C-alpha cells in the first residue's frame, strides 16, 4: 500500500445531515515510537497492546454545506472545548487530500473519555482513532459502501489507521488489537510506516488477557508534549542507535511472543521504557518526565518480583504515570499488591485497571 492508495476516487452518493458514532481505546507501547520524520512517519517500528477500558467515544454530526471549506466545533463531555480545535484543525488539513469531502461539511464532534480527562493519560491515541473511524464511516456512505467496517485488515480499517496516524502517531495502533505493529520492519510481514497492522505471528497464551493497571502518579499537564519530545530526537546524539535498538528489540520479541518467555519479555519491556526516558534526558534541552513516585513504584515492583517470583513488570509512556503489566493468572495477587503497596504513590490514590482489548468499534 502506498499513500496514493488512500486518495479516493470520485464519490457516487451525497450524505446530507446525520451522525456516526465510534469508540476507540488507548494503547500502551511495548517497543516505543519516539522520533519521527516527514508527515508523521516513525523513525522505528513499534508494537503495543491495545487496551479496552480506557477509550474515547465520539459522535461526528455532519451537515452538508456549500463549498468554502470545512467547519467544525468540538465538545468534550458536552462542553465546547476550543483548546482541542488547533490540533483538530491541523489534523483536518493533513487528511484533506485523503478525504476531500470534508470541505463540503460542517461538523460537530462530540467526544467523551471513559477515563478522567485530567488523569494525564494520553487521550490523543483514543481520540484521534475514534475520530478517524467516524470519518471513514462517513466516507463509506459517500460510496454507498455497506461492507463491514470492522472486518480485520479491511481497506477501511487500514485507512482509519492511516488517518489516525496523521492526528497522532500512536493512534495508528488503536484501531486494531490485541497486539499492533506500526512502522515498516523487515521481519514483520505487512508492517508499514503508513498504518498499524495486527501482529501477524504466533502469540503464546501467556499473553492472553494481559493486564495493565495504570498508576496515576501525576495528573497535571506534561511540561513537554510528545510532539516536542519527538522533535528533539532530530539532534539527539543517541538517536541513530536508539532507532536501531528499537527495531532489534521488536525482532527479539517475535520468539518471546511465540514461546511465552515472560522473563525475557520483562527485561525487554522495562529496558524499552527506561530507554525512552533516557532519550528525554539526553535531549537538548534535556527534560525529565518521571517524578519521585515513579521511581518509588519501579523500586517496589522490582522488590516484589524478587521476593515473590511474580512476572509483573512496568512500562512508561511519555509522562510520570506507571503502567503495571502482568499476566491474567496473577490478577488477584497483583491487585492486592497494587492496593496495599503502590496506591500510596498515586495522586489521590487513583489507578485504572485495564486489560488488553481488540480495538475500535461502532457504538
Ligand atoms: C512515548 O503518538 O503521542 O507514547 O505523533 O506527536 O502525536 P504524536 O506523538 P504520540 O507519541 C507517543 C509516544 C509514546 C510511545 C508510543 O506510544 O509508542
Question: TL;DR of this structure?
Answer:
The protein has 363 residues and is an alpha+beta fold. It is 33% helix and 23% strand. The protein has two domains: 3-201, Ribosomal Protein S5, domain 2; 208-355, Alpha-Beta Plaits, CATH 3.30.70.
In words, what does this structure look like?
This protein has 363 residues and is α+β, with helices and mostly antiparallel strands. It folds into 2 domains: 3-201, Ribosomal Protein S5, domain 2 (2-Layer Sandwich); 208-355, 2-Layer Sandwich (Alpha-Beta Plaits), CATH 3.30.70. It has helices spanning 85-95, 124-142, 155-167, 226-231, 239-259, 262-281, 292-308, 331-342; strands at residues 18-31, 36-37, 41-42, 46-64, 71-76, 79-80, 105-113, 179-182, 196-198, 211-215, 313-316, 322-326, 351-355, 361-362. The strands form 3 sheets. Strands 1, 4, 5, 6, 7, 8, 9 and 14 form an 8-stranded mixed β-sheet that branches. Helix 2 packs across helix 3 (155-167) and helix 5 (239-259) runs antiparallel to helix 6. It starts with 17 loop residues before the first strand and ends with a strand. 45% of the residues are buried. The model has no long low-confidence stretch (mean pLDDT 94). Bound molecules: ligand DP6.
